[in-house]
Specification:
This protein is an alpha+beta fold. It has three domains: 144 residues, MM3350-like (Structural Genomics Hypothetical 15.5 Kd Protein In mrcA-pckA Intergenic Region, Chain A), CATH 3.10.290.30; 32 residues, no CATH class; 94 residues, no CATH class. Helices cover 35% and strands 20% of the residues. A hairpin with a 2-residue loop joins strand 3 and strand 4. Helix 1 runs antiparallel to helix 5, helix 3 packs across helix 4 and helix 9 runs antiparallel to helix 10. The chain is globular, with a radius of gyration of 22 Å.
Length: 322
């Protein structure tokens, strides 16, 4: 039997096109990731804030988020149902990633190498990079050039306006450590479980011997294997009204996800909603991103708790082998 293609690791050189000096990143991720997941990796690695639409171009085909209600004529192949390994079978090939269809930020994605995963490494990860990406809504390459000129010259007629808009901006700033911390936070729940491991815990004396025995037994029982779910399979997630309001009102989650949360359950029914693993992954990412930027400590704590709870649901499942 041949090796599992989806177990391989793809290494990409990501370069923002038509910017000098170049803004680039080198990232590694599983070949089995979907293009929608790759989009979220790119957002974090580059430093974008996931406010706008995106698409991938591979030869003469376009991939992106599907919106059944969109009657504007744009009909991309569903990025949530397309794996990297299906569109890029060999090293040395490229695809184009476009973020913010208004500003039109084009990235060249060069598949530099295909390697086997290392047991002591977590994916996705960023290996290297240089320079800060432009701020959101800078106005494309021309707008970004004007922005940098205004920021560099205190006497520029737009300097004060630009400072009020975004505050100080360092075009050279980049931290691979911060990128990997954010990647680990967002994708930690989707790593496939390996061999079950026993937990090591510190036991404290208890008057109730049965309770102590129960605690010990739970500690040494191996973790259960995750439940395999097919790409189009769904899993249940119970969300109360407050949790749904948090997602709808305080995150940039895709409308296809938030719309289903607006449908109130029937009287007497539990508020259970069904999502694919990719949907839940996207939902967790949106909540985590908002929690990271929330200035209200109470809101931040509520978002963090909701994020952790959804991640605990995700941790019970894994992608079924294709």
């Amino acid at each position: 039997m041949g090796a599992d293609k989806n177990a391989e690791i793809y290494q990409f050189k990501v370069t923002l096109i038509a910017i000098t000096p170049p803004i680039w990143r080198r990232v590694q991720l599983e070949a089995g990731c979907t293009l929608a997941q790759f989009h979220r990796v790119l957002q974090i690695a580059m430093g974008w804030e996931n406010y706008h639409l995106y698409m991938f171009r591979v030869r003469n085909k376009t991939y992106g988020p599907r919106d059944p209600e969109d009657d504007g004529g744009w009909d991309p192949i569903d990025a949530k149902r397309t794996r990297l390994s299906a569109v890029l079978p060999s090293a040395g090939t490229t695809l184009t990633y476009i973020y913010d269809l208004g500003d039109g930020w084009e990235h060249e994605l060069l598949l530099e190498a295909i390697v086997m995963p290392s047991s002591d490494v977590t994916y996705p990860r960023c290996l290297a990079g240089e320079r800060n990406c432009p701020p959101e809504d800078a106005g494309g390459i021309g707008g970004y050039t004007t922005y940098l000129e205004a920021m560099a010259d205190p006497n520029h007629e737009e300097h004060e306006e630009m400072m009020m808009w975004r505050g100080p901006f360092d075009s050279e700033a980049f931290s691979v450590e911060k990128v990997n911390q954010e990647l680990a936070r967002k994708f930690r729940s989707r790593r496939k479980a390996g061999a079950p491991r026993s937990k090591t815990v510190k036991l404290t004396p208890s008057v109730n011997t049965n309770r102590l025995t129960t605690t010990l037994m739970r500690a040494v029982i191996p973790q259960k294997q995750r439940i395999p779910i097919k790409a189009d399979g769904t899993v249940p997630l119970e969300l109360n009204q407050r949790e749904r309001d948090l997602i709808i009102s305080h995150t940039f989650a895709d409308q296809s996800l938030t719309d289903r949360l607006r449908v109130a359950p029937q009287p007497g029914q539990r508020p259970v909603f069904h999502f694919t693993l990719d949907d839940l992954d996207e939902l967790v990412g949106s909540i985590a991103a908002e929690a990271n930027h929330a200035k209200n400590k109470v809101l931040q704590e509520q978002l963090d708790q909701l994020c952790d709870r959804i991640e605990s649901v995700l941790s019970k499942y894994t992608d079924a082998d294709v």
